[in-house]
Specification:
The complex is a heterodimer of chains A (97) and B (483).
Chain A: H1 3-23, H2 31-42, H3 46-54, H4 59-89
Helix pairs in contact in A: 2-4, 3-4
Chain B: H1 7-13, H2 18-40, H3 47-71, H4 79-98, H5 104-130, H6 137-165, H7 178-198, H8 203-221, H9 229-251, H10 254-277, H11 282-288, H12 292-303, H13 315-324, E1 327-332, H14 334-338, H15 342-354, E2 358-363, H16 373-380, E3 388-390, H17 391-394, E4 403-407, H18 416-419, E5 438-443, E6 463-467, H19 470-482
Parallel strand pairs in B: 1-2, 1-4, 2-3, 4-5, 5-6
The chains are: A mainly alpha (97), B alpha/beta (483).
Chain lengths: 97, 483
């Protein structure tokens, strides 16, 4: 087993455990915003897409990478906007709009 | 980024360059901001701040990647990136601002598809350019898993989207040896990834993995019925996250591993909660759920016609019952979403409250087509969230309540879950609407609901059915009460 893999597994399981702890405290009320939010965060694959689209590998790779950038950026922008839009609607008693 | 530039490995063997250190620190900051953002999302008061933190994290990660890529000469072409980002921003903004809240399950399914597509394509590019005999065991395994999971998430989410939109039947589609053939395909996919470890240059095997992923996405979601949609959406969330994590392993990128893990486990956790709310084991939903809903159909066919007739009331009769009520608990279901009746519910509640009636809302965890769907719809109609109560908090209060107003909910108020051992939903925790003095049920027709299970609540003596479009009926209640 390579050291890289061990490092990656450490990171993965610590993040999974942290996520489990944090997410299990999110009330039912906010589960739909939570899904939109984690969806936006998973748009972090934009990072990998940028490297694929910007590389010097040839037209096919660039085109596939560009589609990946497109898809990931839709998730990032759309996900954050819609999460915030939902959360703005959640109001306590007496709150008016 | 290739195997020739492993960031983590370099961190182990020696010092990083200034640019590398900088981007790694940005990734670290982004990861911390994402976790803090999720923590803030645990409370409606702080949730918007959490979104802001995560947005800052995302900007940091993307800016860092671009700066590092340019500095290292990895990113040399800009025009495609700029065009894709511009279109993505436009489409994302449109989807973020204008999609109606009733369409939220569809939107979430669609964005899982985008997530899966992005990850699968990054995997293909990675293999195209760094594939072949020089790929190490970890690198090829991670890339293979990434492409398989990404492709599966892509087509699976499109299937879920199609079922939610009604392009594809919401009924489970089953055929002989279904589980066995799916299992064979999963084993085949893993086998091909194993083969790639020994022979990374076998590109036919790599593309076979991608193709099997595409097929599996379709075939795994095909047999799942509409009633199980909340769990399916959670599962796809989980797959999208695991695919992103696999990308992180393939690219040696910790921020991807971390985000993928957070996403993966949130989907997993929500899926477990949904399964629990339906009294199904998670493994049953994961692997064996496929047969569960057709069983329900069989029960329905045998039970319906011989029973007592439901008590169908007129709008005026029901309005009189509401006028006399001192306390009302509203039970919203997917029918409310379908007829966009959340605003009409709120208007009626306003009139009732003006009459001195206590109005609360009982939210079943699996009401609707995704976790927390009803909360969002009611929030859209300006219902304060402290009037919304979870099942375990409000359930004992039904006995002391004058009217339970069921708006387009079916299975979540079906008493068969308590008493009928042969019912497919037996044992599922339900809202005790039948315990209220009067139960007023708004429903389009007397047909069985989405899951195809007869509801004996509708024929109880203290139940009054009011047939028709929920929104229209509610508006008629409101004007009758105003007179």
């Amino acid at each position: 087993m390579s050291l890289t893999l061990i490092f990656g597994l450490y990171v993965f399981f610590l993040a999974a455990f942290t996520g489990y702890q944090v997410i299990s405290k999110v009330p039912h009320l906010l589960h739909t915003p939570l899904m939109a939010f984690t969806n936006a965060i998973s748009g972090i694959s934009l990072v990998g897409s940028l490297l694929a689209a910007g590389g010097h590998y040839g037209t096919l790779s660039t085109a596939l990478g560009a589609v990946a950038v497109l898809a990931a950026s839709i998730n990032v922008i759309g996900g954050f906007l819609i999460t915030d839009r939902m959360l703005r609607m959640f109001k306590k008693k007496g709150g008016t709009r | 980024m290739s195997a020739a530039e492993p960031q983590v490995a370099q961190a182990v063997v020696g010092a990083l360059s200034t640019a590398e250190t900088f981007v790694q620190l940005l990734y670290l900051a982004a990861s911390i901001l994402f976790v803090l953002g999720l923590k803030d999302l645990g409370d409606a008061q702080t949730a918007r701040r959490g979104v802001l933190l995560a947005e800052i994290g995302m900007v940091a990660a993307v800016a860092g990647t671009l700066l590092f890529g340019v500095d290292k000469g990895i990113i040399v072409r800009w025009e495609w990136i700029v065009v894709a980002l511009l279109i993505g921003t436009g489409v994302g903004t449109a989807m973020g601002l204008w999609i109606p809240m009733t369409k939220m399950p569809e939107r979430i399914a669609l964005s899982h598809a985008f997530g899966g597509l992005a990850v699968a394509l990054v995997g293909v590019v990675e293999y195209l350019n760094h594939g072949g005999p020089q790929m190490g065991t970890l690198h090829i395994t991670a890339t293979g898993l990434e492409v398989a999971l990404g492709a599966l998430t892509f087509t699976g989410s499109l299937m879920a989207f199609g079922k939610l939109q009604g392009f594809i039947t919401g009924r489970p589609v089953t055929y002989p040896l279904q589980n066995l053939s799916n299992l064979a395909m999963i084993v085949g996919t893993l086998g091909l990834i194993g083969l790639l470890v020994y022979s990374p240059g076998a590109s036919w095997a790599f593309y076979a993995v991608a193709t099997l992923g595409v097929l599996l996405g379709v075939l795994l979601v095909l047999p799942i019925g509409g009633a199980d949609m909340p769990v399916v959406i959670c599962l796809l969330n989980s797959y999208a996250g695991l695919a992103a994590s696999a990308t992180g392993f393939a690219l040696d990128n910790n921020v991807l591993i971390i985000c993928g893990a957070l996403d993966g486990f949130s989907g997993f956790l929500l899926g477990m909660m949904m399964s629990k709310a339906m009294n199904r084991s998670f493994s049953n939903v994961l692997f064996g759920a496929f047969g569960a809903v057709p069983e329900g159909k069989a029960v329905m066919e045998g039970a319906a016609p011989s029973g007592p007739a439901p008590n169908v009331g007129s709008v005026e009769e029901a309005a009189e019952v509401l006028r006399a009520a001192r306390s009302v608990i509203v039970v919203p279901g997917y029918g409310m979403a379908v007829s966009q009746a959340q605003h009409a519910v709120r208007d009626l509640a306003n009139v009732l409250q003006a009459n001195g009636c206590d109005v609360r809302y009982a939210i079943h965890p699996v009401a609707g087509r995704m976790p927390g769907h009803m909360n969002v719809l009611l929030a859209e109609a300006n219902v304060p969230y402290d009037h919304l109560f979870d099942l375990d908090v409000i359930n004992d209060d039904f006995t002391a309540t004058d009217v339970a107003l069921v708006v387009g909910a079916n299975d979540v108020v079906n008493p068969a879950a308590r008493s009928n051992q042969s019912s497919p939903i037996y044992g599922m925790p339900i809202l005790s609407a039948d315990m209220a003095k009067t139960c007023v049920v708004l429903k389009r027709s007397l047909n069985a609901g989405f899951a195809g299970i007869e509801n004996e609540l509708f024929v109880r003596s203290n139940t009054m059915m009011v047939l028709g479009d929920a929104k229209k009926t509610l508006m008629q209640f409101t004007s009758a009460l105003k007179e």
